[in-house]
Amino acid sequence: MTGLFIPQVISAAPSPGKLGGIKEIVASPGFWGGSSFAVGENSKYAVLKDGTAVAWGTNMFGQLGISAVDSRPFAISPILKPVTVIVDGQRIDSAQSAIFMDGSVKVPIRDIAESLGYTLSLEGELTLTKAGKKISLPSAESIKVSYTSLVSAAALAKATGLSTEWNSTLYQLTLQTKR
Questions:
Q1: Smallest Cα–Cα separation from 113: which of 97, 135, 132, 95?
Q2: Cβ pair 157, 163 in contact under 8 A
Q3: How large is the C-alpha radius of gyration of the chain?
Q4: Which residue from 60, 65, 132, 158 could staple onto 79, CB 3.0 to 4.6 Å apart?
Q5: Cβ neighbours, 10 Å, residue 97
């Protein structure tokens, strides 16, 4: 991503049917090969001609969709592709999607734990409880994105005895209770 520069905006207009505050913008002619752009109040998004989605700007709540929650006003970062998670044959729909970053899948722990019948405690360490049995997960394995705790799917599977299957073509993680 080196050598990319933030576009000079020629025009910006409210875009009907888009989320409030989002505007479609037109950049300098020929910039990134005529890619698509959108801007929020403090964040900007673009689709490069190779199809890569990128973002920059304020990121206090993870709104850029990148692998960090720090603001990047002048640094362009690729947006992470969401991962579909299937638990015991059921798709898990979460406010914050699972993500693939740094070679591993990070899953929203609360939604996954509850789908497996566990209760989750975030007091000090991540603890799953089911039928009186407590399982601790390494907190070093967790990250927060948009107020949601994500943990390594591998660490969760190891701690709970789940089998895993990763489909890199579909970006789909299947977790299965071993019977």
A1: 135
A2: yes
A3: 19
A4: 65
A5: 22
